[in-house]
Write a structure and sequence with these properties.
Layout: E1 5-11, H1 15-35, E2 38-45, E3 62-63, H2 66-71, E4 77-80, H3 88-97, E5 102-104, H4 107-124, E6 128-129, H5 141-147, E7 153-159, H6 162-174, H7 178-187, H8 196-199, H9 202-216, E8 226-227, H10 235-243, E9 246-256, E10 264-275, E11 287-294, E12 298-305, H11 309-329, E13 342-343, E14 350-359, H12 365-375, E15 380-385, E16 393-399, E17 402-403, H13 404-416, E18 420-429
Parallel strand pairs: 1-2, 1-4, 2-3, 4-5, 5-6, 8-10, 10-13, 10-18
Antiparallel strand pairs: 7-9, 7-11, 9-10, 11-12, 14-16, 14-17, 14-18, 15-16
């Protein structure tokens, strides 16, 4: 680092990278006035170095050799926004080992090999910062990592995928079907042409793995996270929720289960029926929000745009300033040691459940169905029978708290019952514990 100048090597110049360059161009004078740092995008690694990116960087600073950017002795800080595991992992490790701080927005990488990245940064005495990896422009990682470091966290729960929240919002507010809402999200650029990572919960699973690691100081990876998506949610499910004071959301949850002894967590992503009184119930469209519950601090909520070039680039820029200031002082921010943890399997967790069945419309069916619930110790809290139709009738059940394994056994037997045409949606129901907010 030469005086106040911070020379940045940028790996990737897509939506986030180009937005970052624009922000640096617009804000550099103000940043220098407030911090004394002069940020310069010195080199940019891209696949096609001759392509005009429409950004305020001379063309001769672009290269298709990302490794040369990382090893360049004139580069002070490396920013990785190319995504994926490789070559991002090796490039980041090489940068850290050479004493260069790294800023990344790569949730997939951190959710799978974050432990290796954090350990390397710790050993090298430099920053690895990743505010943009979860929640876009929402300041979330830094509060968990720094402000709440001494806070015993009980639960982190949030809407961390804007695509699915947009789809469910449209289904709730306009009555759109899942397929129509998805098509609209794709037209608006909220969903990819292949939306699987979003709608099946993989994206949210990676994010909650990162948040769980930071909040609980535990080594949680994406493979530890149970996930279900929203593709099976129907207009009938949305309608039932609305009539009964709920809204359907895809929610990521990490919560501490152990009181004494070794740390045990539940980490999962799935649709839930949220009471309308819960703070997350009002999060609409493509917005994200994360609800944190701590033993001393109580309840906190972080809300904002969870995706998009400008919000994500804003988070990257904030990390860049922090890394530059730390580099000038010869210090770094530590994630800390990540301990071992048992992530409790979904079969061992309890919840209330909503179940939608299509059955034959004839005497004795309800009794047979209720008998299967009883045989597996699943207690019914409420039942609603829809009007008969050509294919039979619909039955909707809400259970009391029940073990997942018992509910799954109930579903298996229901599918074998001749009177049951179809076992439809199964959605967990969240009991509202925030009435005192």
């Amino acid at each position: 680092m030469n005086g106040s100048s911070v020379r940045v090597g940028l790996l990737g110049c897509g939506t986030v990278g180009s937005a970052l360059i624009q922000l640096v161009h617009e804000q550099s004078d103000g940043i220098e006035a407030r911090t004394g740092l002069r940020i310069e995008i010195a080199r940019v690694a891209v696949r096609n170095a001759s392509k005009d990116r429409g950004v305020d960087v001379p063309l001769d600073r672009f290269t298709n050799d990302a490794a040369s950017v990382v090893t360049d002795p004139d580069i002070d800080i490396v920013i990785e926004v190319i995504g994926g595991i490789e070559p991002a992992r090796q490039l980041i490790l090489d940068a850290l080992k050479s004493g260069k701080p790294v800023i990344t927005a790569n949730k997939e990488l951190l959710a799978n090999v974050g432990g290796e990245i954090f350990a390397t940064a710790e050993a090298s005495g430099v920053d690895v910062l990743f505010e943009a990896a979860v929640g876009g422009g929402i300041p979330l990682v830094r509060p968990l990592r720094e402000s709440l470091l001494g806070e015993p966290i009980d639960r982190v729960m949030g809407i961390v995928n804007g695509t699915t929240n947009y789809i469910l919002t449209r289904m709730t507010e306009s009555g759109a079907s899942y397929s129509d809402a998805l098509a609209e999200a794709q037209e608006l650029g909220y969903a990819e042409a292949d939306p699987t990572a979003d709608v099946e919960g993989y994206d949210a699973g990676a994010k909650i793995a990162i948040l769980a690691s930071i909040a609980f100081g535990a080594r949680v990876v994406a493979g530890d996270v149970y996930h279900e998506g929203i593709s099976a949610i129907t207009a009938d499910d949305i309608g039932f929720a609305a009539r009964n004071g709920f809204v359907v959301k895809l929610v990521a949850i990490a919560e501490k289960l152990s009181v004494d002894g070794p740390l045990e967590l539940a980490v999962r992503v799935h649709p839930v029926m949220l009471p309308l009184t819960h703070p997350l119930a009002s999060v609409r469209g493509s917005f994200n929000a994360v609800f944190v519950q701590g033993s001393a601090v109580g309840e906190l909520m972080f809300y904002g745009r969870g995706a998009g070039g400008n919000p994500t680039a804003s988070a990257v820029l904030g990390d860049l300033i922090d890394a530059g200031l730390n580099l000038r002082k010869g210090s770094s921010a530590s994630v800390g040691a990540l301990g071992e943890v048992r992530v409790r399997p979904i079969d061992e967790l309890e919840s209330e459940y909503y179940l939608h069945l299509s059955v034959v419309d004839e005497p004795g069916v309800l009794s047979a169905v209720a008998g299967i619930f009883g045989a597996h110790g699943v207690s019914i809290s409420a039942m609603n029978q829809g009007l008969p139709h050509d294919d039979g009738a619909d039955l909707v059940f809400i259970t009391h708290q029940a073990l997942e394994r018992d509910v799954q056994a109930t579903l298996r037997d229901l599918r074998e019952l001749d009177a049951v045409h179809q076992v439809g949606s199964v959605i967990r129901v969240l009991v509202d514990e925030t009435d005192d907010i």
